[in-house]
Design brief:
It is a single chain. This protein is 50% helix and 21% strand. The chain is α+β, with helices and mostly antiparallel strands and 677 residues long. The chain has six domains: 1-38; 42-139, PAS domain (Beta-Lactamase); 165-270, Beta-Lactamase (2-Layer Sandwich), CATH 3.30.450.20; 282-396, 2-Layer Sandwich (Beta-Lactamase), CATH 3.30.450.20; 415-515, PAS domain (Beta-Lactamase, 2-Layer Sandwich); 584-676, Arc Repressor Mutant, subunit A (Orthogonal Bundle). Helix 22 (635-642) crosses helix 23 (646-659). The protein is flat and about 155 Å long. The protein starts with a helix and ends with a helix.
Length: 677
């Protein structure tokens, strides 16, 4: 007996150790699965390099390089690094591995396809399969690098433009401080950049007479950029006190409260223009009598003079136009032959060619504009003067109005709802086909001939006429939607839902009528059925209450029956079974009586109750086998007791494990069944 106790203690310890090792093994397996998932699902490229070669890579690393994971494994890690970056990568990686640097570093790689990609990498030292290795994490930053390079190129470009433009240009802060100037402004003002930037206000360079007006523009522009003029003339004061006439062109820098302003000194230009206007009556005749794009045309079709409006319209500079281009270059091909005929005819007899006509104009960008031209000869010369008015927007507006009218006429006719337009005197001025169907009379019967009052029930008319009049005083004072009775021209009575709204900027209203007669009839039927359903629902609630009482009583009876069965087994069966056992000496019979007694005890024990009361669905045979397994009987012993083969018992054991949810789990069945006791 002492030896058996020692053995049992050792077996128990071994069982505990086995269970502990199984738990540890499961934890390690779960940890490996988690790490493998992180490796393959990561958005970053992850790889392990050992002895200079890739030994593990994830999908992202393969995608970045253009190779498959299988191709990368065993490949030299530096073979994909751009030759010009290899030394730098080696140096930066060593610094990071030695703890001298923690900052990620960027370098180029060559993909399998030969493309150059930028990579941002960090590395750390690890132990992999018991040997030193390097764990690398990297991300593809090619698009990011390209975006930065574009921004840098753009900044250089605009800084160059800002500095080399002939116009004196400054950047102005919201408080009027000059934050940046170019060389031209420094020369115009007489101050150095150091004296200007961040220290002076633009208002210091404007004469007092212009200052208030320009400050108003300054602040207005920051509220609404389009509200302030973008270019105008003003007087500029330099360091020496000289006053110059300048054209100021100002605009806001998008998404900031800063503006950019360019100053063009027109003092000399204005003096020259004054002399020209005084000495050349011809030029004054042309440019003072037109507010449109105006040009002077030579006999050979050359454009000899243009105004600024034409410059803006054409997209060319004066220098590119005057004396260098023919007006025929701006004409749409289909219009050119006709206009050349007019050009030549006009020089024979100016009355034989039309003075006004339309044509299509092509600017420097290839955009086509509709233009109305007024053209005539300059007396005593072979030159003609032409004024061109851009009517593209006007023609588009007319076309849009026509399209809009067609659209709304189509909507009006095909809305699917009876619709009419009503004048202030209640006359129906327009009706659609649905209205004709609803009213029982064709559209011609109603339009501009009859009033809507003919259609509606006399009981509703006073209210409807009141709404009609009140709506024309205050559109919000009358309801937009309401129901009323309608009598069509065939005498049929209907209930309709009206939707009424005023047409903006008029005394007309538009009325849509929806026939809801059938809907009203269905609503009445539904209300009647709802009352019936409510009555039946109350009856069902009463029956439900009675059923609940019966079910509760049945459950009480069931519990009472179970208690009686258990009590009878304990009082009437087990005592007699004990007496039979005492009178039996045969070992086999005694074993069967022990099993019988154990089974009866299990029937009333928590173990059997848990097996049968749960969702395990064990059969009687499986319950019997489970009891014997719990008693630590072997498969062979159970087979002999139940007079079946060992294979049958093994099949029962498999079924029990499956129903208890133990399949594919390293859990001892005997231990699990004992835990249920």
């Amino acid at each position: 007996m002492p030896e058996n106790s020692v053995l049992e203690e050792r077996i128990a310890k071994l069982t505990d150790m086995i269970s502990h090792y199984q738990d540890v093994e499961a934890s390690l397996r779960e940890s490996r699965d988690i790490n493998a998932t992180i490796l393959q699902k990561s958005f970053a490229a992850i790889y392990v390099v050992q002895d200079g070669k890739f030994c593990t890579v994830n999908i992202k690393a393969a995608a970045n390089s253009g190779y498959t994971t299988d191709e990368l494994i065993g490949m030299n890690a530096d073979s994909i690094v751009h030759p010009e970056d290899k030394a730098n990568v080696l140096r930066r990686a060593r610094a990071m591995l030695r703890g001298k640097s923690t900052k990620p570093y960027a370098f180029r790689i060559l993909t399998k396809q030969g493309d150059v990609r930028w990579i941002m990498e960090t590395v750390s030292a690890i132990t992999y399969d018991g040997h030193p290795a390097i764990l690398g994490n990297s991300m593809d930053i090619t698009e990011h690098r390209q975006a930065i390079e574009k921004l840098q190129d753009s900044e250089i470009l605009y800084r160059t433009i800002f500095e080399t433009t002939l116009a004196a240009t400054i950047i102005i802060e919201e408080d009027t401080t000059i934050s940046l100037v170019n060389s031209a402004f420094s020369r115009m003002s007489g101050y150095s950049r150091k004296e200007l930037e961040g220290k002076k206000s633009w208002a210091e360079f404007v004469i007092p007479e212009d200052r208030e007006r320009m400050k108003a523009y300054h602040y207005l522009r920051r509220k609404d950029n389009n509200a302030a003029p973008k270019h105008y003339e003003c007087s500029f004061i330099n360091r020496q006190g000289d006053i110059r006439n300048v054209i100021l062109m100002a605009d806001m820098i998008p998404h900031t409260n800063k503006s950019v302003a360019s100053f063009i000194d027109i003092t000399d230009h204005k003096l020259a223009v004054a002399r020209i206007e005084e000495s050349k009556k011809l030029y004054r005749t042309i440019f003072e009598n037109t507010g449109t794009a105006t040009i002077i045309i030579e006999e050979d079709t050359t454009v000899s003079l243009v105004n600024s409006v034409f410059v803006n319209m054409s997209g060319y500079s004066r220098e590119d136009l005057e004396g260098k281009r023919s007006w025929t270059e701006f004409i749409f091909p289909d219009d050119l032959e006709r206009m050349i005929t007019y050009h030549n005819l006009r020089r024979l007899n100016h009355l034989d060619a039309p003075r006004n006509y339309e044509f299509r104009f092509i600017d420097v960008r290839g955009s086509i504009r509709n233009v109305f031209v007024t053209i005539d000869m300059i007396p005593g010369t072979k030159k003609s003067v032409a004024s061109l008015a851009d009517i593209t927007e006007q023609k588009l507006a007319v076309a849009h109005l026509q399209q809009s009218e067609n659209l709304y006429r189509t909507i009006f006719e095909n809305t699917g709802t009876a619709t009419m337009i009503v004048e202030e005197d209640m006359t129906i001025s327009l009706a659609n086909t649905e209205f004709a169907t609803l009213s029982g009379a064709p559209k011609q019967y109603w339009e501009n001939k009859r009033k809507w009052t003919e259609l509606f029930n006399s009981n509703d008319l006073p209210k409807m006429i009141h709404y009609h009049m009140q709506r024309r005083i205050d559109p919000e004072a009358s309801p937009r939607n309401y129901q009323c009775g309608l009598i069509d021209k065939n005498g049929n009575k209907k209930i309709v839902l009206l939707a009424v709204a005023m047409i903006p900027d008029s005394k007309k209203s538009v009325i849509s009528l929806t026939d809801i007669t059938e809907q009203k009839r269905i609503e009445a039927v539904l209300q009647k059925r709802e009352r019936e359903v409510q009555k039946k629902s109350r009856n069902l609630e009463e029956m439900n209450t009675a059923l609940k009482v019966l079910l509760k009583q049945r459950e009480a009876d069931k519990l009472e029956l179970e208690e009686k069965v258990l009590s009878n087994i304990k009082r009437l069966v087990l005592p007699y079974l004990q007496k039979i056992k005492m009178n039996r000496s045969d070992a086999r019979d005694l074993a069967f009586f022990n099993i019988l007694e154990a089974n009866l005890l299990d029937i009333i024990s928590p173990f059997s109750h848990r097996l049968t009361s749960g969702h395990h669905n064990l059969t009687p045979k499986e319950l019997q086998v489970a009891n014997l397994i719990k008693e630590e009987k072997t498969t062979k012993e159970i087979a002999e007791m139940m007079a079946v083969s060992e294979a049958t018992i093994s099949l029962h054991r498999d079924h029990i494990r499956k129903k208890l949810g133990l399949n594919n789990k390293k859990i001892n069945l005997t231990s699990y069944l004992l835990s249920l006791s």
